[in-house]
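Spend some time on this chain, tokens included, and walk me through the fold:

. . .
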Amino acid sequence: MERKSFGNMQCPVARTLERVGEWWSILILRDALQGLTRFDQFQKSLDIAPNMLTRRLHTLVDAGMLERRQYNDRPPRFEYVLTDLGRDFRSIIIALNAWGNKHFAPEGPSVMLVDTKTGKQVDLALVDRNSGREINARDYAIVPGPQADSIMRERLESVARRREAANEALLQEQAADDGPKGKASKAKKAAGPKGTDAKSAKDKPPAKAGKLTKLTKRA
């Protein structure tokens, strides 16, 4: 069965997957970013079948991620060197490493990103370079770009409507909590049974046994 091509889709995620969506390709780029360049080095690192490695390397060369360079004439030998496009994939590898450590390493990280000056592990975050602010779902949104077609615009407008509806529901919930009924409900929960402060009632010392005996005799 022929695999569907993502190359003509407008989504940049789909176009990226068209070039590096196969897991061997991502691992080859990981190794290339760590300095590996030669066929035998990749094969030893990945324990991958030679024919599969050949196909993946050729795919990455065709995608412009690697450049094939001859380093020996007799016999002819080639190495695979990262292009600017391939080196720009470093941030994706770093993000995958952080995500994997967070969710799939219960025993603790085996690979860490550290500050080379301090040796401390980096707390990775996605930051807007213009403002220095961390990217989050509350303050940032994906919107149609100048070249978006009607399908892309419709899809992202639908996303925006769902986002607005969710924000409106959250605002209404907050308003209800801050209104008279919400405040009364909070006060009722804070108070003990029948309006008595539960903590005060709990902390009040019990009556002495002697006084209780006298009251019983008088009755």
Observations:
- The beta strands are 66-72, 77-82.
